[in-house]
Amino acid sequence: MTEKLYDSKPYNLHQWYNSSNTTPPLQNTPDALHQGLYRTGVRSDDFPNVDIVSSGLQKQIIQGKDINLASLLIPSFESPQSHTILADGMEINVGNKPDPRLNRQLTIQEFIKAFGKFKRVMTSAFPGRRFELDAYEEDIIEISNFYGNKFYDYHKLFSAKASTLLQEKQIKVDWSKRDRDLMILIGAGVEINICKLCHMVDHDTKFCPLQLAEKSVSTPHLTKNSGNSDIRGRKRFYHNGKEICNNFNSLSGCNKDGRCLFLHMCSNCRNYDHSVTTCPRQSTHNDSEKNRKNYSFKNTAAKTSTPAQKSSFGSEK
After folding, report:
1. For the segment 48-60, what is each residue's pLDDT rounded down to a tens digit?
2. What is the rounded CA–CA span in Å between residue 232 and residue 223?
3. Residue 28 pLDDT > 70, yes or no?
4. At residue 148, what are phi and psi to the nearest 5 degrees?
5. Where is this region: Disordered (predicted)?
6. d(Cα 156, Cα 139) in Å, to the nearest integer?
7. How is 186-252 classified by DSSP, letter by letter?
8. Which of 40, 36, 77 lies closest to 56, judged by CA?
9. Do 155 and 140 meet the contact criterion of CB atoms below 8 Å apart?
10. In DSSP terms, which residues pair with 229 in a beta bridge?
11. In contact, 52 and 76? CB cutoff 8 Å
12. 137 closest CA partner among 120, 156, 124, 119
């Protein structure tokens, strides 16, 4: 039944009028429409979701062939493999030039739109596949969340594999089951999208709960952090190329519970077992700093007071 439907020629107006057993009214008056609604057709908005997909692509989808989803985003797209030309009285089959639009790497939004058309065409012939294809779409979205644009590589490999098994081995693939071999193939060497604040994989950095914590501790008078200061305006310290956590070295401490991206070490002596607030070398460091400032102040005062002492000594004489 399905094969006959998609092998037949497109339905036309002559067939519609012949099958209705009525003749169209001469005038489209309200009375004529009320008495014979179907003499002039139906309202267009009675069918809101109509996918503009060529009959050739619909037939390929129903047959289980590998479909380039980009072709479903091109209205009434037809892709014959070759065309015939006459040369010296001979017919020659010449392959068509590849359409550059079919080589695009679809975004996840474009994939959802194209795959939606694919599902509606497929389920119009096989309604029982809706759950299977819905599960596959959800799986693709999850792959996109972790591996970015690699989701489309997975789909192209999966679709080609499923079509090959059906056409050559008479084996139908369950699209709701993820192909583990293909996941290993596309995931090799790819950095997984994880939160850069807490390193969890269930959300993106911009949705991390720690974003609110960082914003709550900032004050209005602080400007955007520069290269030498952090978000609170404190000086940055580094050890072996890695930044030392200023929160760890503050009186309140760091509250990220092992999820902090910075080094938890003393910014004064570079020791891991305490912060700068409890550093045993902190007092010695402060004393030497005070002595240096006092020494500098005394030298400045001595220089400024020398001319006054000489003048007073001369007056006594």
Report:
1. 777 788 888 889 9
2. 8
3. no
4. 65, -135
5. 278-317
6. 14
7. HHTTPPP---TTT--SSS-GGG-THHHHHHHH--TT-----SSB-TTSPBP-EETTEEBPTTTTSSS
8. 77
9. yes
10. 235
11. yes
12. 119
Tokens, residue 123: 């389920």
Q: Report yes or no: 171 and 64 within 8 Å, Cβ to Cβ.
A: no
Does residue 88 sit in helix, strand or coil?
Answer: coil
| Per-residue model confidence as pLDDT tens digits over 228-245 | 788 778 888 888 878 888
CB 152 within 8 A of CB 158: no
Structure tokens at 37: 């609604």
Q: How far apart are CA 220 and CA 67, in angstroms?
A: 55
Give yes or no for a contact between 69 and 111, defined as CB atoms under 8 angstroms apart. yes
Q: What's the rounded Cα separation, in Å, for the pair 158 and 153?
A: 9
More confident residue, 10 or 35: 10
Residue 98: DSSP 8-state: P
Beta-bridge partners for 85: 92
At 28, is the secondary structure helix, strand, or coil?
A: coil
